[in-house]
Amino acid sequence: MSTDPRSILITGGGTGIGAAAARLLAERGWRVAVAGRRPGPLEQIAEEIGGLALPADLADGEASRTAVDRAAEELGGLDAVVANAGGHGFATVEQTTEQDWEAGLAGNVGTAFHTARAAVPHLRRSRGSLVVVSSLAGLRAGPGVAGYTVGKHAVLGLMRSLARDHGPEGIRANAVCPGWTRTPMADEEMDALCGAVEDIADREEAYCRVTRHVPLRRPAQDAEIAQTVAFLAGPESSYITGATLVADGGAHIVDLPTLEFDALS
Q: Active-site residues: which are they?
């Protein structure tokens, strides 16, 4: 690892988990670059934390390489990279068009692949860390999100390949699988649920409904997932690689056929 202050690039860094991770790591003294498709949110976060905004379509290999290389040049190297950009793929298999399928793969696994491929030479020099942000959808399957589910499963395979192939070079690769987290994307899903289910009055009630069988009975705050990302990015996790850290309030341990027995406990 390089000496302090450490440097990090976070993709999808303009909003949600990426922005929360950028804020947290900047507070801890890291030099931070944020990359993504929308210049406005990126520039706002970069101004807030004194970081670097890198607008780029990370699903494009050349654009991704340019962003990674510029981050390394401007920040004096890269000690960690967080592949957090994602989205797309919200339909069943039957309803998914060819265009939607390609967009789902590009937006979820393509962005992570291109970012990781460009980052490896820099992380080799720093013996650094790469964190992939997957999802509970990388371990399970929800209704009507086929492309997203496939992409989030695929990034776990990408992470394991990186850990296997580049561990001998000192590069660590790990993944975070969040459950429901209060982000702009999740807010939109809660609003859609309100519109579709008559007895859900508002966004807050929607969050309560989707987490009612989660052991902690609530969604995560984006800052909580940022803590997990920061742990895997930094030296505190120096002997952890190839790991998938699930941060879902316990949702993945719930035995679905026993839900009716909640009333008896």
A: 148
